[in-house]
Amino acid sequence: MLSSFKWRKIFLLYFSLLSFSAFSQLENIPPNQDTAFLIESKVLHQPRSIWVHLPEGYSPSQSYPVLYLLDGDAHFKYVSQLTDYLSDYDRNRIPKIIVVGIVNIDRGKDLNIHYDLLNGKKDLSKISVSEGSGKFLKFIELEVVPQINSRFKTQPYRILMGHSLAGEFAFYTKNTLPGLFQAIILISPAIHDENSSLIGDFSKMLQRKDLKGKMYISLGDENTQKVNLITEQLRRFAPASFEWDFRHYKEEDHFSVTYKSMFDGLKFIYKNWFFDNYSSTLMTPEEIQQRFESLSKEFGYPIQPTEDFVNNRGYKQLRAGNIDIALNLFQQNVRNYPDSWNAYDSLGEVYMKKGDKKSAIENYKKSLQLNSDNADGKKILEQLQSGNKN
């Protein structure tokens, strides 16, 4: 028989192991929302892989702008993480965005510019659409973009990113189909001497009366000649409706410049998006409406405030004692996000604060129908129904 002392030692050892086990359980890595599919391309006459990253909280009841990455296999991972980071509630620098990686089989064959022949020689005034970049652009326009629009909930706002040779292709794309992408990020574009006519074409494109959009250009510590020619055309011809910016990252080289460029490029495109979610500023429903009407006008499609944004403003008004304004905001959230349990939970709380017990009960019930795990809501509902809350 074991002595009482030994029993105590065993018990303490067992308790220690149990406690260690309880506090050292493995925390799983959050799953990503990446997927891939094949396009059986009729333009390229071969199957092509498309990679897609959906933003955190992606919902079929909402629609999202789309960022297209040339050289998708090289940039997909870090750009997907970057867009999630910048669109997170704490930062709120850009909206939730879908990222599409266009993967090449033969990069040079896809991206290099080819010219039609005239009397057996290259006609540098006519870029071929039956091979090279002309054919690849047709693939993107006629197959990639329509497939993304049919498979996912997208807004008519598309961003194209291209680096190096893909930067030249993105530049060619803007010249050829100015309306296909509303914003372009050119990172160290490798404009070949043979293709210098692209810069002349660019100046003509900039003088279109209907031109709108945004362009962000960056360069590492490398030859600035071609980029200087591009920015000179922008200074001379870009209308006010076409916003642009250029950054020279002298501390980066041709290959390391991409990350900073994407970070700054997305912030440039969405420079008017940011609002500090931790600000103590109170906003009325009218002020929120004005803000998002302005964003809608800038980006060319209806943009409604996010659920978190309105919920945050509602609670700020509630804490300030402005119950009717808070009620208005929470009602707006329920209208815009009828499938959100949290929207009904917040609306139930403001009705409870207002003394409208019946409406509070109705909204807490709706919240629990949408999310039966809402423990706090369940507890409050029980208190309301038992008469413990006014």
From TrEMBL:
Transmembrane segment boundaries: none
| UniProt keyword Disulfide bond, yes or no | no
Q: Does the keyword Repeat apply?
A: yes
GO terms of molecular function: hydrolase activity, acting on ester bonds
Q: Which PROSITE patterns match?
A: TPR, TPR_REGION
> What sections of the sequence does the record tag as coiled-coil?
none
Its lineage reads: Bacteria, Pseudomonadati, Bacteroidota, Flavobacteriia, Flavobacteriales
Q: Which residues form the signal peptide?
A: 1-24
Q: Where are the TPR repeats?
A: 341-374
Domain of life from the UniProt record? Bacteria
One Pfam family for this entry, by name? TPR_2
This one is known as Alpha/beta hydrolase
Source organism of this protein record: Chryseobacterium pennipullorum
